[in-house]
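Q: What residues go here?
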């Protein structure tokens, strides 16, 4: 009985020491967006009697950079070919990469635009400050000139008033004469009516 147990243990050890055989199949989605979706190896310990859809027993040629399975090649049996970039998935992947790149550039442009806007606002503030300072200076100069002109006019008016006072002669008030009596004047104008007429 001990011999049978040793033989059974030895059989298990031999079975576990033997390397397991792996079968390699190649998955390919011609419309895959990434290189791995268009071709990658799948390892299994169980061979497939019927190969699942989009899986192939034949390996792509070693020199291919981006292999993809084309069902139309090899008289309709299919074969590996180099991805030409015309596959829908590749076009989509390229478009997504370009969109991502454009989004990044758009974000960079937005940041640059914000910086430009800030610089323009700062320049406008400086310009407004300079314009305000120039206007204040001009206003001050005009105010000083106006004050000088007013002072000059006041001096001139004072001289004119002084000269008028010096040249003025006193005027004697007019004497009032008694008014003629109106009764005397009206009596002298009326004449008696004669009967001869």
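A:
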């Amino acid at each position: 009985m001990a011999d049978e147990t040793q033989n059974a243990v030895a059989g298990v050890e031999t079975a576990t020491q033997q390397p397991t055989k792996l079968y390699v199949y190649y998955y390919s989605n011609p419309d895959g967006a990434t290189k791995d979706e268009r071709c990658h190896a799948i390892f299994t310990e169980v061979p497939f009697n019927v190969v699942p859809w989009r899986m192939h027993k034949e390996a792509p040629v070693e020199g291919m950079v981006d292999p993809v399975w084309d069902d139309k090649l090899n008289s309709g049996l299919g074969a590996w070919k180099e991805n030409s970039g015309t596959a829908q998935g590749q076009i989509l992947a390229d478009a997504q990469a370009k969109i991502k790149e454009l989004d990044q550039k758009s974000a960079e442009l937005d940041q640059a635009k914000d910086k430009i806007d800030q610089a323009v606002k700062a320049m406008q503030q400086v310009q407004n400050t300079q314009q305000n300072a120039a206007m204040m200076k001009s206003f001050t100069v005009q105010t000083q000139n106006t004050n000088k002109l007013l002072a000059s006019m006041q001096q001139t008016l004072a001289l004119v008033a002084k000269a008028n006072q010096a040249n003025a002669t006193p005027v004697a008030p007019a004497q009032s004469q008694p008014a003629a009596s109106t009764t005397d004047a009206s009596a002298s104008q009326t004449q008696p009516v004669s009967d001869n007429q």
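A: Context that may help when evaluating the design: The radius of gyration is 61 Å. Helices lie at 2-17, 35-38, 88-167, 182-189.
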